[in-house]
Protein: Alkane 1-monooxygenase
Organism: Marivivens niveibacter
Amino acid sequence: MTDTTSMGLFRNAMPFWLSLALVPLPIIAAIYGGWTIALTPLLAWHAFTFIDGIAGLNTENPDPETPTDQLFWYRLITQIWVPVQFVLIFGLLYYVTRATHLSGLEKVGVMADVGILSGTIGIVYAHELLHQRNRFERWLGDLLLSMVIYSHFRTEHLLVHHIYVGTPKDAVTARYNEGFYRFFARVLIDCPISAFKAEQKLLARRKLPWWHKTNPFWRYSALTIIMFAIAAVIGGWAGIGLFIVQAAIAVWALELTDYVEHYGLTREHLGDGKYEHVKPHHSWNASHTATNWLLINLQRHSDHHYKPDRRFPLLQTYDETQAPQLPFGYPMMAMGAMVPPLWRRWMNPKVRAWRRQHYPHITDWSAYKAGTNPLPR
């Protein structure tokens, strides 16, 4: 277990600052175009998978009781990323809409590179920020999500996903044998609706209508309009189009991750719409060192769902007796998810083994596969 006092040192938090080293990649792509556009996916995704193969697994667990004041350097990187991402998106949007040396396809490629970072890093950091109790960090999370036109994610994640994960009421729990593309289309439709209904339900408990000013969807809409307005002022219709390209790639990266995190894992239905409590074995766990640096321990997802309030440096990892293990880190798993036959070959045997390990008494999985169990009460 990591010494509590040593966690306050910058050198221990430094690996999680590697995300800043990726910022120059889309800038290089914008300046030179051509093959340099491929540098961002190669280094942001493939390179970390390669480093994982060298660095191996990190199974060391920090002291979960480490005080927050020892986590300054860890928290700072998630907060610094907000202005960094803003400048990266809109600075490059200004540049590429005026760049005569770039073809139209190259301009799209540059903003797709930006989307890889705003999705792979920005939304992951937003996820960490929106889980915090203080208003400042939650606002920073809102800003990051508005830059990728996905503000409803905050409500959907906190009020739907974490409560109903592993049940038919959670669209983000990918079903057994469900291909990524079907999953992607489903969550794009279902998640904004379920998020809005969750906020509407909260307001109704206070005897307030959905259009009340405290509904965060007003804030989400205002921030999104502001982002679109900035893109329009900077680059006109081309700026709006390229901004959407960036956001679409970011959302694609997010939902690939969502797909991987819970594929095929379901909570046991206890009868009458009641489900067992969330446990570590309801999320796929991964201890791959380099990818956990890049994704600020998001792969320790089993512990995140077990203890949602725990900040990322304190997340615990589990062995195969406690939580199911992914064979590779998220980047490699995401690439596999885009090839459904390969994905099923990788993961379906693991899901079946998980069932035998944790639920040997369940003999009929048909309702779990189809998502037709009763909705949780």
